[in-house]
Each structure stands twice: as structure tokens, then as C-alpha cells.
Design a protein that fits this description.
There is one protein chain. Strand 1 (about 1-10) and strand 2 form a beta hairpin. The chain has a single domain (about 1-85), classed as 3-Layer(aba) Sandwich (Trna Endonuclease, Chain: A, domain 1), CATH 3.40.1350. The chain is α+β, with helices and mostly antiparallel strands and about 90 residues long. The protein has helices spanning about 30-40, 65-70, 85-90, and strands at about 1-10, 15-20, 45-50, 60, 80-85. The chain contains three helices and five strands.
Length: about 90
């Protein structure tokens, strides 16, 4: 499985943001449970999920202070990288 993510350092906070589908926010607890699977890619970092359909306002899930920060930042400045769960299995 592949996904897009980015490591961001802003206002002295280093965290990861991961693009996910909107459906992850529809079931209570699903986003929290899925975050565990991303810890191998971003150890010792807070993780924030972002769901954004074209033309829609992005939705975020994660630490409230980071979510507020991301909601106030232009998303076009994020440098996204491709990750694969196959890579995590190799490490």
C-alpha cells in the first residue's frame, strides 16, 4: 500500500501529516486506530491525518494544536513524499 505524507517542522514542533480518504473520519475511532500503523514511518512524531477532495476544504484529525496550525497554513507549500508499507516491513 502506498500513501502520501510529509514531515513538517513549524513553530518548534516536528510532526508528520498523512493524506487519507474522507471515509477515515466517518467511523468513530477509525482515524485513531489507523494512526498506529503509521508510527513505523514517523517514530517519535505526532501524526495528523488530512483528507481533501478536489475543491473541498481539507479535514484534519490529530493533535488539536497541530490541526489548528495546519488549518491556518497554505497547503500548496507542503512537500509531499510517496511512502510504501512494503518499505516499512524492510526496516
Amino acid at each position: 500500500m502506498k500513501f502520501e505524507g510529509a514531515i513538517i517542522e513549524e513553530q518548534g514542533i516536528k510532526f508528520a501529516i498523512v493524506k487519507v480518504g474522507k471515509d477515515i473520519f466517518e467511523v468513530p475511532g477509525r482515524a485513531r486506530d489507523r494512526m498506529i500503523s503509521f508510527q513505523s514511518f514517523f517514530p517519535d512524531m505526532a501524526i495528523v491525518f488530512m483528507a481533501a477532495e478536489t475543491g473541498e476544504v481539507p479535514q484534519f484529525y490529530g493533535r488539536p494544536d497541530i490541526v489548528r496550525l495546519m488549518m491556518s497554513k497554505p497547503l500548496e507549500n507542503i512537500v509531499w513524499e510517496q511512502y510504501s508499507f512494503d518499505e516499512a516491513a524492510e526496516n
